[in-house]
Batch of 2 targets.
Target 1
Amino acid sequence: MARQKEPQVREFPNGFLWGAATSHFQIEGYSREMQARLSDWSRWIFEPTRILDGTTAEQACDFVNRYVDDIELLDSLKLNAFRISLNWPALMQEAPGSSIQLDKEAMEYYRRVLQTLKDKGITTFVTLFHFCLPSWLADRGGWLSRDTAHEFSRFTAEIADSLGDLIDYWLTINEPMAYVYQSYVSGQWTPGLKNDYIAAFTALRHILDGHARAYTAIKSRLPNAPVSFTNHWRPFFPENPINPLDHWVAYLRDQVFNQIFPKSIKTGRLEFPAPLGFYRRINELEGEIENLKDSMDYLGVNYYTRELSRFKMALPLDIFGETSPTIHFPTNALGWEIYPQGLYHVLTDAIRPYLNGPDGKPREVFVTENGYADVFDSKLSEGDWSLDDHKRVNFLISHLEALHDAIKAGVNVRGYLHWSLIDNFEWAEGLSPRFGLIRVSYPNQSRMLRKSASIYAQIAAKNSIFPDLINAAQTIDEQG
Ligand code: FCB
């Protein structure tokens, strides 16, 4: 993927945060016994055929035991921000007699992780819900039950009380629409329902409610804490730019997948675009949600790729739309088109309605995830496989250029968290997709820096992208 632009020095604003993002289930690892009783995902991974490459997250990167060394690596790369998620299932456990209590040991573990980061001057971003539910809640219907929203706020209040002093930026929910889509429509994630839009939208309503309650719980304890959620932004474009029906499908997908969550927060109401809102059972889910309005202090943008959409008469259940198989640009190893212009579009255009409301907030934007996957067998250990990751280097630089263009266009982007620091467990795809700046050899848990890690470290150290670096990246790209 050759860049077209002439290399130039691109300086980022003072105080820009350079970091990496992770989530607990994807990196931490737990013993099989703990896994089996803790969360919906820890049961799901042991069901046959659920995980494409047959691996599990049982051990993952063993971050629970290796966090000191991994944070050392993060620091050695001059990164000054780190995003983790909290293991709600481990933190809020069902005690005998079925009362739910904060698990002191799990909480102490997170205090140690966060303290290790703070001791190094690293800014902490903490996600409260990153796709995993306590199994006792999953058994009661998970997000299909309104009770989960109450439990989420109870958990959040405990965290604000016990870890609040160590958390710089709060994120309530990670990618709510990606979550409901995969859990209730594609069926690739637990509980594995397929095309159940009523379930998906019911869960959406309860997640919005849970977000609002969590926001309120944090703010009542820590009024100045910046709180938001992460939205997975995926620009949808019509496959055929002159076909109005393709335009309609792309518009509808954009409204439902990208806009509905931030829009509901902006207005305080859940509303579905036509024709969805015409269906009685969907219409019944619409309406105001208490304390939801403006419960967003900054914007968390996750961006990976775009999608082309097209009209298909034969698919009424999918609102007459499908994803086009047409690909115009190179892809990552999971088939996701590499489209840095999409990040520019999201930052300068798609998120505009949600910035600078009447009270001036949200003012700040953070890219809370963005990254590139290649695929290598999880059994590989020694050797130099995957270390010369010139495609990730190019992905990184081209997306940072797009981000810088957005800053020049006036968007207040304050930081970039690359997904991810280390290779990790990629949900239904398992351990073989590799998203790390740092390679993990799963059989012996060794860590090796990839080329991208050293390039990213140079960018972070200089707070800029500079011609020598771009030329070096260009050269390795041509060789590759
Ligand atoms: C995002 C998820 C994250 C990771 C990346 C690749 O959708 O938030 O957990 O799996 O994709």
Target 2
Amino acid sequence: MTTEEKKKCLIIGSGPAGYTAAIYAARADMQPIMVAGLQPGGQLTITTEVENYPGYPDGIQGPEMMEHFRKQAQRFGTDIRWSYVSSVDFSKAPFKVVVEEKDTIMADSIIIATGASAKWLGLPSEQKLNGFGVSACAVCDGYFFRKQDVAIVGGGDTAAEEATYLAKLCNKVYMIVRRGELRASKAMQHRVFNTPNIEVLFNTETLEILGEKSVTSAAIVNILTKEERVLDITGFFVAIGHQPNTEIFKGWLDMDEQGYLKTIPGSTKTNIPGVFACGDAQDKTYRQAVTAAGSGCMAAIDAERYLAEKGLH
Ligand code: NDP
């Protein structure tokens, strides 16, 4: 059986951006419906402790924090569907959103908060130790490794920036780079090469991350000399890029070459009036829970104003 319903405001995604949009939309009486997606709670549900979200002086576990977000959104009446969006049709308003390839939701306004996913190397040990020394966010987790030795994989601006960030906290930072040069900008390269406790290992790949309960070392290989080596480290950071979860919007919404949604600066407006984007799906620069939440708030306010202007709310 398929269903069809009509709503004022549909939020796609359930990370900090989506839930914050829901809290604001629900409190503005827009009766939002949220399609939570395949990873309810988003990227924070795969981290452990969060210490940099304001309001939690003692820190909080990522999954628990997202439960707080969810409860707050539901308290004001957000209708959450534990499901995923399979396709959209933004050719005219109300917009058509298909859920699990069968059910249709028509919505006067759409808030996209589908986030981004970190790219991973694909090693089984990386998955096993994720949150136990393996991390894709130095700014989030670097603090746990202060005065320790860590490694970071990647040679782009993110890896370079995170390596220098980690170098301030940690004893030693190994930067594992698969080619003979960095992709990062010259300015970032300069910073890396002028930081004494960063050692760049060129032409190097990771064979395995080692450790039973948490990371204790990593086995690496120089792909030119075939020489293998074990790095004694307690933190293993992966910074090989992110992928915004925007595939289903291709052809409808303007995006950059990496797939990040384009919004009109200073707003969450996309190229289609009535469709708004917030959080990591449109932000490759900051990518923090608190900035995502802030832009979720902006999206709900933008959506409310749009509905009011159209006489729909
Ligand atoms: P990038 O795609 O620029 O770089 C990814 C890096 O990871 C490259 O060095 C790449 O190697 C390496 N890599 C990719 N896959 C693997 C793999 N499987 N194994 C090992 N290494 C791998 O991503 P970033 O996140 O660094 O940057 C994204 C965008 O954001 C860029 O445009 C960047 O300039 C921008 N940015 C700007 C900042 C700033 O201006 N302050 C800060 C952060 C990001 P290879 O080079 O061989 O492909």
